């Protein structure tokens, strides 16, 4: 059971590889110092901070952020190190709060690599302090412990580091603050408020997105949830936002990251959550007056995959913030011009002669100046994000990459489940050319609804038959990607197509033999598939609840299951509808997921009975549609599915590779 520490309390540590997760109400700088047996720092090389984020056995974030994850490997610490102090400081010169008393109490948790919390500490009682020693890990008689410290310093980092015996404290503190102020470390805004019962140790990468109007909410994106940055398509389990919690299975050693300034590493080794973090690639110093050149994987994480995931979420958050700032500036300019015009024209005397015209021209000139300034700032940020996207996109692993990415041509069936899956792209109307990948965390936590109804779009696409075909193509592309990114034998796909109308779209899945069984047709086929999957859910639930997960029947397929349902509710009677709702509610917790290809209006005859079903699914469209609502900053993101380019054989090649691997596995 996790220990909730109070100031001065300590707790033993049974693991040497740990994560320290920090949650604050505003962006803070996270750093760490290494001390000897007396707690003294021998030099600046014993301090990990945004400018020097990696030391032996220690890695901190290169950004000022509201949430941090620090990686610690106590087994890799030099023998001279007896104490690791975790420091938090408010960044100076960036317009944020200057004392911790003005922000929410920071929360710090020590967790294992699998996300299991070991100890936590809420730093209360701070007021004028701008830097604080949050906690320390210390070695005593050969064993490591964690102690809650909470010692604040009104003099900031300089006073804190001086107190720890560092002679160069003022100079180092200035360097850290300057790095953050100059944007060498990207500052991440605070995520949306968490529910009272939320697990505070789970880092949120983005806001939770949801369709506007009817339909279900989506997960964080760029990520369906970053995304799980607030929850959004990246994260909720991603639509634009992302959550964490990664497995700690041992894995082969990972090749070192590319050297500073070197070429991008396109090999993308398997995710290594059990190994200590490798230094992230960094860009060469930028010329004076120019922005630093982006580098793929230039984010925190234990592997290149995790760094790229966090970098994509960071791009999503940056675009959300810069667009929010631009829209706010334009709204302010509009409001100011209206007020000035009302004031100038409220006096009847100003309407005589040229006074009114002069006032109107002056107000419009100020409005144009404010809008031009806002647009210039937006264009600058968009240029930087576009440059970063051009570097990151080619470096993405298959699970994160679009179907047009060359990485698929060298595809091999993976040995491990990836962190997330790309469902499509997200963009905003002011910058339609800048696309952010929408990543959804794996394993799936909710099903998908591919909306084939015309009401989901703007009405410009009137061919309902073509729209249904595109919806099926989208479903096949998503199902194929899921099959491709899972190891052999760990993912199975079933299809219900009562009228056989999806036969043409299902050709890639059927002809390559990757389906668990031929598509079920007719009422009998619907009943058979739903009965088998319902029984599987029942058996696994009983085994888990009874603590006998290893006593499942020998013939039971323990792989994750995906059920694609086409033309719902055609071929479904009341019993089948009840079973489908049961699978939607209970299936995800035991590895059974739904992908509905349907028009909600077709099921209108059931009335509100099916409303819970639709709300439980993440609604996606086969055509670009701005239905993903982001409550974090109020944007409506346009989602565009990730489809196979016309005429490309990449889908068949990938599925053939999956089928070949299965035949060898058996």
Give an account of the 3D structure.
- The chain has 666 residues and is an alpha+beta fold.
- It has 10 helices and 23 strands.
- It has helices at residues 156-163, 169-181, 304-345, 355-395, 464-485, 507-511, 522-545, 574-586, 611-615, 650-665; strands at residues 3-5, 10-12, 17-35, 47-48, 54-55, 58-59, 65-73, 83-89, 107-111, 117-122, 131-140, 143-153, 210-211, 221-224, 420-427, 436-441, 447-451, 491-496, 560-566, 592-598, 617-620, 625-630, 635-641.
- The protein is 28% helix and 21% strand.
- The strands form 3 sheets. Strands 1, 2, 3, 4, 5, 6, 7, 8, 9, 10, 11 and 12 form a 12-stranded mixed β-sheet that branches. A 5-stranded antiparallel β-sheet has the order 13-22-23-15-16.
Question: Keywords, please?
Answer:
666 residues, 12-stranded mixed beta sheet, 5-stranded antiparallel beta sheet, globular
**Which stretches are poorly predicted, pLDDT < 50 over at least 5 residues?**
184-221, 223-278
Radius of gyration: 27 Å
- Tell me the helix content: 25-40%
> What fraction of the residues are assigned to beta strands by DSSP?
15-25%
- Tell me the distance between the termini: 41 Å
Please tell me the overall pLDDT. Answer: 80
Instruction: Estimate the global geometry from the Cα principal axes.
Output: globular
* DSSP strand count: 23
Work out the helix count: 10
**Biggest sheet layout:** 12 strands, mixed
Structural class: alpha+beta
Quaternary structure annotation: single chain
Task: Write a brief structural summary.
This protein is an alpha+beta fold. The chain has helices at 156-163, 169-181, 304-345, 355-395, 464-485, 507-511, 522-545, 574-586, 611-615, 650-665; strands at residues 3-5, 10-12, 17-35, 47-48, 54-55, 58-59, 65-73, 83-89, 107-111, 117-122, 131-140, 143-153, 210-211, 221-224, 420-427, 436-441, 447-451, 491-496, 560-566, 592-598, 617-620, 625-630, 635-641. The chain contains ten helices and 23 strands.
